[in-house]
Design goal:
- The chain is α/β, with parallel strands linked by helices.
- Helices cover 45% and strands 17% of the residues.
- The chain contains 10 helices and 10 strands.
- A 7-stranded mixed beta sheet has the order 1-2-3-4-5-7-10, sandwiched between helices. It has a 3-stranded mixed beta sheet with strand order 6-8-9.
- Helix 1 links the parallel strand 3 and strand 4.
- It is globular and about 65 Å long.
- The N and C termini lie far apart (40 Å).
- The model has no long low-confidence stretch (mean pLDDT 95).
Length: 257
């Protein structure tokens, strides 16, 4: 087990082709800070080709309660706070947010499949971190919430695109604008969750899913994952062509040519 940042906000553990990334501020319900995002982005930048699955977890009783309370300060002198961002020129503020988004986007990088194991609260940045993953396993007491609009803000950590992909336009609109909590049962029904399990069974459920994901040959898994991701945006003819090209590569590899 190695620390991904000096303050222990994020830690990583490697078991063969599986990398586990854990938010490690349980006393603060894994509330996130810019240092958290820097650490997460660094993990993504350091991935090697042998990693096939990335598991994202939160230590303690909640996955992540969102932004650290200190970031809500309107004082421009508070590093990383909303006040500091708001006092910046628009171009600089957007560039800063872009660097934060990098902590989330890498979870759908080519070559890996990401799995969030979510217990308790996943609020704001916490919900967006879970949504950034390809798959989610929730405990029965888990809930996801995007309350940014109720604070006069917007979800800006990649959450609007990932949520809309999962639940569709109208439901995503309603969830984002109302800021209401989505419980585990609804998450399973709407496709936000791939599975819902008792709290005591989360580790086992995640491990079972990871075993299933790593069972097929790596090349086939990676090509298929890439196809599923592109299918969200590609028109049918473009997607059909992508399937043909991927299958030709697979057949050539299997034939040893």
């Amino acid at each position: 087990m190695t620390a991904a940042d000096a303050d222990g906000r994020v830690r990583t553990g490697r078991d063969g082709a599986v990398l586990t990334v854990t938010l490690d501020r349980p006393d603060q319900l894994n509330a996130q800070t810019p240092a958290t995002w820097t650490a997460l982005a660094a993990v993504g930048a350091s991935l090697d080709d042998d990693v096939r699955v990335v598991v994202v977890r939160g230590a303690g009783r909640s996955f992540s309660a969102g932004l650290d309370r200190s970031l809500f300060s309107t004082d421009p002198s508070t590093p990383g706070g909303l006040g500091e961002l708001g006092s910046m020129p628009a171009e600089l503020a957007q560039e800063r947010i872009r660097s934060y988004q990098a902590a989330f986007r890498w979870l759908r990088s080519p070559g890996i499949v990401s799995v969030a194991g979510v217990q308790g609260h996943a609020i704001g940045a916490g919900a967006q971190l879970a949504l950034a993953c390809d798959l989610r396993v929730l405990t029965e007491d888990a809930s996801l919430r995007l309350p940014e609009t109720t604070f006069g803000l917007v979800p800006d950590l990649t959450g609007t695109s990932t949520l809309t992909e999962l639940v569709g336009y109208s439901r995503a609109m309603e969830i984002c604008l109302t800021g209401r909590a989505v419980g585990a049962a609804e998450a399973l029904t709407t496709g936000l969750a791939n599975a819902v399990v008792p709290a005591a069974g989360l580790d086992e459920a995640v491990a079972g899913l990871v075993a299933a994901l790593t069972a097929p040959p790596p090349g086939a898994s990676r090509e298929t994952a890439a196809l599923v991701r592109s299918a969200v945006r590609n028109p049918p003819d473009v997607q059909d062509a992508a399937e043909r090209a991927a299958q030709a590569r697979r057949l050539a590899e299997l034939a040893g040519t």
